[in-house]
Specification:
Layout lengths: L1 H43 L17 H8 L5 E8 L4 H8 L9 E9 L2 E13 L2 E9 L5 E8 L4 H7 L2 H4 L22 H24 L5 E7 L1
Helix pairs in contact: 3-6, 4-6
């Protein structure tokens, strides 16, 4: 009888203790989860000022490009032309609002000794499979002297079309004011290459328009040291 009483007392004593312990663990788990949520929100919330536009397209292989586009070149100077004050004119010429990257234009002015022979421009355009980086050579009269795709993410079948010398040669001698319609003024391409080809055509014309505006007296420019 005495043993039974002790057993009952022990059973009745452990249950409240177990319930209390379970409640404490449950509350602790919720508190931990809430603290993690709060810390995650604070840690990963991006500040507004950190959102920036994509960096300007670099010129990756100057020596190789100069050999093919301006073979007589001996040096070049890098210039930055600020076009943010000409957004109204640019919108009219481009047929759209300028992008953030088009507020400034990097121009690489090419020289044969002391004689200017043209400029090199670079730009990223959005192809069907990712960014395509263009290198455009322009002579002193504002006509295309040569074009090269320095980087792309196109599949092999599409790349073969876009890199054909006969297709790229169709850009040579074109000016900003010329018609630039794919399939008419620039040779057409198979359907799978059409989106990227059209991006290249529009990108090349846009660069010529930006250069035309940069050459006007109203555009501020910064000339960097000789290379």
């Amino acid at each position: 009888m005495e043993m039974m009483s002790q057993s009952r007392l022990w059973g009745f004593g452990i249950r409240p203790f177990g319930l209390l312990l379970g409640c404490l663990l449950f509350v602790s788990a919720i508190a931990y989860w809430m603290s993690k949520q709060n810390r995650s929100t604070v840690l990963f919330e991006p500040p507004l000022e950190a959102i920036q536009s994509a960096p300007l397209c670099p010129w990756r292989e100057p020596a190789e490009d100069l050999k093919s586009i301006f073979p007589s070149a001996t040096r070049y100077e890098a210039e930055t032309h600020i076009l943010s004050g000409r957004r109204t004119e640019l919108a009219s010429l481009l047929g759209r609002l300028p992008t953030g990257d088009e507020n400034a234009l990097h121009v690489y002015r090419i020289y044969d000794q002391q004689n200017p022979v043209g400029v090199i421009l670079t730009q990223r355009v959005k192809g069907a499979y990712g960014a395509i980086e263009l290198v455009l050579g322009v002579d002193p009269d504002g006509k295309v002297n040569g074009i090269r795709l320095q980087r792309h993410r196109e599949p092999e079948a599409v790349a073969r079309v876009l890199l054909q010398s006969s297709w790229l040669a169709a850009f040579v001698a074109k000016e900003a004011r010329d018609p630039w319609k794919l399939g008419q003024d620039i040779p057409g391409v198979p359907e799978e290459a059409r989106v990227s080809a059209n991006a290249i055509v529009k990108g090349a014309q846009s660069m010529l328009i930006l250069l035309q505006e940069a050459n006007k007296s109203g555009a501020n420019s910064i000339v960097k040291p000789h290379h």
